[in-house]
Structure formats: structure tokens, C-alpha cells
Amino acid sequence: MATKKTKGKKSYNDKFDTSLEGNLTRDAELRYTTNGKAVCSFTVAVNDITGHANFLNVEAWESRAENVVESLLKGKRVSIDGRIKITRHKSEKNGSMYTNIVLVANRVRGVEIFTKSE
Q1: Could you tell me which of 21, 29, 18 has the C-alpha nearest to residue 109?
Q2: Where are the domains of the chain?
Q3: Residue 1: pLDDT above 80?
Q4: Could you name the CATH architecture of 14-110?
Q5: Which residue of 9, 11, 83, 92 is 20 to 30 Å from 2, comparing CA positions?
Q6: Model confidence at 72, in pLDDT bands (50, 70, 90)?
Q7: Are 66 and 105 in contact (CB under 8 A)?
Q8: C-alpha–C-alpha distance, residues 82 and 79, integer Å
Q9: Exposed, middle or buried: residue 19 (CB in 10 Å: 0-12, 13-18, 19+)?
Q10: How far apart are CA 77 and CA 115, in angstroms?
Q11: How many H helices and E strands in the chain?
Q12: Distance of CA 32 to the CA centre of its chain
């Protein structure tokens, strides 16, 4: 349930804004909606403080989607700013409820990794 922004106050959706850095686990896949809007989806591996990898699904829209597909490949380190989108749906097969969590990217940047030369 979203609330509108008012001066000096955050909306409910602001609680879901986040930034992360990780590696693309696969090349981004580009598709178009029936309205002709570009959307790409990809997965990013993000290590937590224990070194355990967490995998997060990401989607980018319109020109951002096309730029991601053209410039970022599997294994590339990226920095992403966006909002978390949580949806729930019911399985048609067994009636179970499932939760889907996706990061909707507002900004995606490739990150250069520098190593110390010997």
C-alpha cells in the first residue's frame, strides 16, 4: 500500500529504495511489452558479509534496458540503484502462494575493478 509523498515525509515506497554492487550471473535478456516498452531482466550475485552469495533478479525498463543489454555481459561487476518490488501470486498447479522479489533498476553502472600491478 503506497502513500503519496508529502513535503518533508517519505512515502511507503521509499523504504524499498536500495543500492547494491555485484556481478551479472548471465547476459541480460531483452524483450518488449505489448505496448512496445523495452524491458530487460538479469540476475546479480551479491556477497554478504560472510562471503555467501545471494542472487537477486533485476529488471530495467525502456532506454535503460537497451543500454544494459548493449553494454553489460555475464561476469561484469555492476552498481545498481533501484527499488524493491514484491509481488505475490498463487500457483495454478497446487494453489500455493509464492512471493517474487525483483530489484527495479533506476540506475545501472558498470564498475571497473582495479588490481595492484606488480
Answers
A1: 21
A2: 14-110
A3: no
A4: Beta Barrel (2.40)
A5: 92
A6: very high
A7: no
A8: 10
A9: exposed
A10: 14
A11: 1, 6
A12: 17
